[in-house]
Amino acid sequence: RGCCVQRCSTPSTSSMQRLRLAALERQIFDFLGFQWAPILGNFLQIIIVILGLFGTIQFRPRYIVVYTVWTALWVTWNVFIICFYLEVGGLSKETDLMTFNISMHRSWWREHGPGCIRRVVRPSAPGILDDYSYVSVTGCIIDFQYLEVIHSAIQILLSLIGFVYACYVISVFMEEEDSCKY
Question: How far is it, in rounded angstroms, from Cα 96 to Cα 105?
Fold first, then answer.
């Protein structure tokens, strides 16, 4: 178990650390935008990456298998998010799908992207609530949907790297387990 496990677990551990940090960063911005579906997905991603790290460090191949299966689901989720924000296949970024139809919130990047100038306009019509306002956003360097797509693409890339390392670690663990039997 000694040298080989140490040699293969180090790259896997650092790869999983990057995944956890990327998911945590994404979790923060989804919380700011009240995006409940991505918040739930990010939370599960963080938990499963921790489980995968534990499995790598503690020589638990089953935990790494759980991580590998989750990674396939995570990639699928991120492909869905890319399709959602690019409005592929009848999906629309204007729906409340990401908030489970609970609220009217949208991506935090919609109003706070790089270079965006946000202007709040209070409605002047009588009978409209005073705290309700319209937000005008102009001057964005990059539109919010492309920032969301970039986030998802980074998640996919890191997940694929983590998937490859996890498969490698599982194969090394299984080889060592087989060599110990004889």
Answer: 8
